[in-house]
Amino acid sequence: MTARKKIDPADLRAALLEVRDWLADTDAPAPSRAQLAAAVRLSARTLENTAPGSSVEVRVPPFVAVQCVAGPRHTRGTPPNVVETDARSWLLLVTGGLTFDDASATGALTASGTRAREIEHWLPLLRF
Question: Burial level of 32, CB count in 10 A (0-12/13-18/19+)?
């Protein structure tokens, strides 16, 4: 297994602060693609480190896909436990602006497999 790169909490906080206004207000100017990518990638990698394992895959296209949560590991093909969402919904989940249930109910997040919901235990990563 490849060692996972540790994420500096200060880097995560700084990246999330850059998109904070946009998360709070859809009329606020959208962050640049680079700012959005940094916030999504750092937060997903933080989850990967906080909940190590390979039983759930979290996808935030087109920016990142990580595996997390201890348990049975998959090695080929589509994993049995997948959570997929868009960048804004992911960042709202990460910062406590959206719950897993609300994201699922509105279709902003899809979760498949019996263990996919387990990421909810580690969210939010950082509250504003």
Answer: exposed
CA 108 – CA 8 distance, rounded (Å)? 28
Alpha-carbon gap, residue 116 to 101, rounded angstroms: 12
N- to C-terminal Cα separation, the chain: 34
pLDDT per position as a tens digit, 4-58: 788 999 999 999 999 999 999 999 999 999 999 999 999 999 999 999 998 999 9
- Give the list of residues 6+ apart from residue 123 with CB closer than 8 angstroms, or none: 47, 93, 94, 96, 100
Give me the pLDDT at residue 1, please.
Answer: 45
DSSP assignments along 64-105, one per residue: EEEEESSS----SSS-SSEEEE-HHHHHHHHHTSS-HHHHHH
Residue 30, both tokens:
């959208």
Contact, 53 vs 70, CB < 8 A? yes
